[in-house]
Amino acid sequence: MINKNNSRSIVLLFGLSLSFAVQAMTIEVHGNSIYATGRIGDEFVKFKEVLAQPSIERVVLVNSPGGDLWAGMQVGNLIREKGVKTVIAGYCMSACSIMFMGGKERSFSDAFRPTQTYIGIHGPHDTYTKSVLPAKAVQILYFMEKSMGERFNAEVMKMALYHMDDAGAMLKVYDAKRLPKRVAYHCRSSKTLRKNCTDIPDQDALTLGIVTTNDFTAIDLPVGFRKPPNVVGRELNQPLADSDEYFRDLSAKQCTTDGCRKLIADFVGYKENKALAVPIGAAGLGIAGNQDSETDAFSRAIRFCNHVKDRPARLCETQIVNGFDVRDLYLSAVAMHIEVLTALSVPPEKYYANEEYGGVMVSVNGLRTQNLSDIPPQHIDGIKTFSTQELASALKSTQAPVLIDVINIDDAIPSALTLLFGGLAHDDPTKELDYEARFSELLKLLSPDTNNAIVFYSKKRDWHAANAALRAKKLGYAHVGWYRGGLNSWKAANLPVATPIVRAVVQ
């Protein structure tokens, strides 16, 4: 019981990660296994060549968002004809799920954390219009039924393939062996909040026939398929030299209570991914452990350090991520911002990447709490809208504004300070009140003079920067602006970026 809580021009895509450039998977043969990762393009010929090798026994699909439906179907059939096993390492979505379902024996692997290991299934949509094409889902349904056999659940599979409001609709099913409490669920749209998706509590990957066993397969990924550990877009390459000495010094410098010293002891015992942050010029610390990624640990440690119950907010810097020392990261980032800003040139055009378009009919009646990826209006009363050219010119001026990035974690516009997750808003009044207090305290630390001009930006044309600008105006900042195009438009103008300076995390 479900509870509510053959055309080359057709592709399967996940969420809003749209890319229409011709791309190809990385495919390598190691021993008896084929390893494939990335977006699926025209992979049929390559897979046909490698699957023809008599020693091949399995295909390992590593973190693929899907891609071309035709290729996915053809490769899935090749895998089925060969009679080899298929294994998912990480996520396998859209056309990748079809390739996976061609395996005679199918399983998840332990190559990535359980929360990062899942299959995503949905129907096709048109490459250019992005409209869903339910009539084209018949071939996928037939392919899935043939693979799943007697475990084929028509209700669930038809929901996945036909109940689509847009191309971001998805049925997600996780590794039940390592994550038994994670319920499979279906969302009709990329904009559907998780709470409004349809849970499937009485089914898992095995009972649905997606895998043939709930036992995971141990996988040692080839070097080229392993993502180097990194935070803020920079590779972690400086191991902590003497951990015992570091933690002794940390305890002596940062701790005045047994509770603080216990946090250090807890941190040492935490599972990866873990990080430790300290406030700037103050005692105390913040720790995070057992996170999904190094970046999650990095930002969560700062968040816990920023916000301590019954104490004012403070700016913090992460010092340790897993076994790596990142204390030099901030100094090098600041130096990089200065260098890049000095070399910045004002671009010849005013607008880039269609930043000036869209959102004309949208009115602003306050903060946006849902569908923050929607295109915002072109103008907001009382808030200056900056074009790419105008922002670059302002940053080069003698009275440059304070620039605040509210979402990006890998790259930043030069001179920007990061107020991570600073563009959110909540329907729940209690959550909203708490969030607003944290936002206010951190923004005043980043930009204490409310008479200085302040400009917010996000990744693209969305509501994150608009929300933050509206909050700043409410807090009494006299000259509030927003860069509507965000980092995407900045990069489209071929303007330089720098390492994010993350000292403040709102949520």
Structure description:
The protein has 507 residues and is an alpha/beta fold. It folds into three domains: 10-225, 2-enoyl-CoA Hydratase, Chain A, domain 1 (Alpha-Beta Complex), CATH 3.90.226.10; 230-325, no CATH class; 332-505, 3-Layer(aba) Sandwich (Oxidized Rhodanese, domain 1), CATH 3.40.250. Helix content is 29%, strand content 19%. Strands 2, 3, 4, 6, 7, 8, 10, 11 and 12 form a nine-stranded mixed sheet that branches. It has a six-stranded parallel sheet with strand order 19-23-22-20-21-24. α12 links the parallel β22 (453-457) and β23. The chain starts with 9 loop residues before the first strand and ends with a strand. Mean pLDDT is 92; it is low at 1-22.
Helix content: 25-40%
| Secondary-structure class | alpha/beta
Q: Which residues form runs of ≥5 with pLDDT under 50? A: 1-22
| CATH arch. level architecture of the largest domain | Alpha-Beta Complex
Tell me, what is the CATH class of the largest domain?
Answer: Alpha Beta
List keywords for this structure.
2-enoyl-CoA Hydratase, Chain A, domain 1, alpha/beta, 13 helices, 24 strands, single chain, Oxidized Rhodanese, domain 1, 507 residues, 6-stranded parallel beta sheet
